[in-house]
Amino acid sequence: MSKSLKRVKRTLEEAGIETEVKELGLARTAAQAAEAAGCHLDQIAKSIIFRGEDSGEAILFLTAGGNKVCADKASTLAGEPLGKADAALIRAQTGFAIGGVAPIGHLNPIRAFLDPRLLEFDTIWAAAGTPHHIFEMTSADVAQHLTLPSTQPPPRIADGWPGKEGVPQAQIADFVETE
């Protein structure tokens, strides 16, 4: 078992969230992950990471599987221009490889924003630290452990599960493209 997968499992356990991690075959897209999980495409939580052009830091946008992040909205929320985060930055800041970035258990603090579409479902699925593993959690757990009201300033997420004492949570915000 990889260190990343172990870290996600430990973080879930410490948060008191009982779930099984599901091993997938090849699931490089949200549609493939949804098919493997047997769920709606938007129940897949995609971890989209940008690099802050001013700060140089990774910024996480956790979005529903069928949604796309609007770069202009995301930049406004982040308070700085955003660029593409490379694999080295993502690995250094989160501890995960591209395709396996979990919404929890990051090695270093990261600013995070949550697509409210994910909260419309009873459960969602997210990467479990590798491109080949996902886990299911309730939207109540997402709301309790990963989010603050949208009126809060952009907070930071530290190693471990958001919601623990001293560990701020993600901001719920609209950052998706509209047609």
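^ that was protein a. below is b, sequence first then the tokens
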Amino acid sequence: MPVLNIAAIQTSPVPGDLDATFERFESQVRTVVAMRPHLDLVVVPELLLAAPKAMLEPDPDFDERAATTVPGPLTDRLSRLARELKIWLVPGSLVERSGKHLYNTAIAINPDGEIVAKYRKIFPWRPYETLEPGSEFTTFDIPGVARIGLAICYDGSFPEVARQLAWLGADVIIQPTLTTTRDREMELVMARANAFANQVFVVNLNASDPAGVGDSVLVDPEGTVMQRAGAGEETLFGVLDIERVAIVRKYGTHGINRPWDELESKCNGLAFPMYGGARMLPPVFRGGTADTLEEPAAEEQDPRFDADPADRVSHSDEEAAVRVHG
């Protein structure tokens, strides 16, 4: 029976101090591993190692101060830690420098210290977050255990992200978060909805007070909250029975609802106007590939979708820049 043992550390940085924040993070990771030697994976909040200051405290140099290449000196330190402790590590997210661009990037490191996945946040929290958006969905495999999908904070407000990760075969969505505002309650609604609608585990990990408002959650594939943190520092230890994902998808949420069966039955038959008339492919976890979609006959195609979607809508200069950089 595949089981994923995780530790989600709800914690905060030392504001503005990268070195002190890393030392604190490293100590916390070592502590949870010592407490639970059988741990498979440790995750911490979004941008923890970037050591952001409080939301209302001016921090004009944040991006440049925190920026790092991937791989680079910071990821080398993280790789050594994962290799020494023999754990999978998702160290929140980093400010990644790539050429002239800066991204909010989550990485996954395996117990051999190798970076096996990199995900750039697709939906930065505009207008407050000025880092550039990514354009690719990311999953990685823990061999013999589970496929993990990566999302970051505001991504959870867009159901398309969780649906795409689940379609790609994710059993668990890990979502490092840094929320300082009272809309956290709505994020928890979305965490449950994304788990319920896609029949996956969701690990939504926020920063603790004073950096964030806490309320981290582990949600099961039926949308039920397994654990919920308070506002302060704490660790959610979870034992995720990955087989439950397949069981819930086969027999239905609460033995009733089988949304993937419904979706799969519509493959090639239902066009989505908001996606330019695109049709859904069979899910990867059920053997679907990009080759399984048949092109609609010419007489079935809607002429409204002949043009480039970007040409049909007017955009401000700022929005256009987002599209180009994405």
